[in-house]
Amino acid sequence: MNEAQKPGFSRCNNATLRRAARSLGRFYDDALAPSGLKGTQFGLLFQIHVSDEPAMGTIAEALIMDLSALGHTLKPLIRDGYVETFPDKDDRRVKRVRLTPQGQAKLDEALKLWSVAQRQFEDKVGAEQAAKLRAALDAVADLDLEMPAAAPSV
Amino acid sequence: MNEAQKPGFSRCNNATLRRAARSLGRFYDDALAPSGLKGTQFGLLFQIHVSDEPAMGTIAEALIMDLSALGHTLKPLIRDGYVETFPDKDDRRVKRVRLTPQGQAKLDEALKLWSVAQRQFEDKVGAEQAAKLRAALDAVADLDLEMPAAAPSV
DNA sequence: TTCAATTAGTGGCATATGCCACTTTCTGCG
DNA sequence: CGCAGAAAGTGGCATATGCCACTAATTGAA
What region holds the HTH marR-type domain (chains A, B) (predicted)? Predict the structure, then answer.
């Protein structure tokens, strides 16, 4: 790859991040394939699992994803019977989410496959390096980035 | 966010990466919004720009994306007149891609918006840190990760 | 030369994500 | 109490990505 190609391109933090995400995503997807889950779905099931019947908004916030996107992503998981929703007792606007027994089982199954990929990855880059990378990524994700927004004088 | 939530989740390198990508993606998307381009489209136009009438396969390889995905992503850009394709002179299977004059203009326009976002980001995390992060991400993207693939004895 | 295998793309199908407009509930204030 | 405004989701629409099956064009070897 000559000077003009990747280097110039990779100065963009966003593009570099997406590129890495596509690459790693395929790897984890492949690893999880036997379970029938995608990496994203696995992550979502796991997030639900470690939370306590979270509200949709809570999940969306934790994963930094759009609420409606979460709704869309949840649909196949509900359709396949891995997840179910129910209204909050005190606020009928709130919809809570939990794993079904099948969802729990599927997650357990996927966790085994995930471990293999995770270990493989960490063997390659080093557990320490991986942890640092994740920390850096979390920091980036939680940055309070905002466009100058046309600098309102007020 | 208590112990059970983000920390457990964020042990997954893939999930952490996607989360950061969603977050940063929105930031760059917002910045580019006035141009009408998404971050991905901007990246794609730029990649085409710095390459020399690349074949689709070449672009897909550089961006580590599926060839068919590239084809899909290219469609809106072609429809909007920013990009055009033409067959390779020597190999009729190969389809080459280039920016139209409008595409070039749009890229120039978007580059200004991109710079603002890029600068903003680097002011926050430090240019040095950002460069390190990109290097780490490129390293991850280019890792030769492969599943044991059921260890074929042959 | 001829045909099997390989290579480059396409189209269909499915998930991943976002934004926007709209509905339903709540909340807070007058 | 009653209504304006906020908060939580939904549905529609569009792009982002991948996989698979299939077509067209090339290549390599018999």
Answer: 10-142
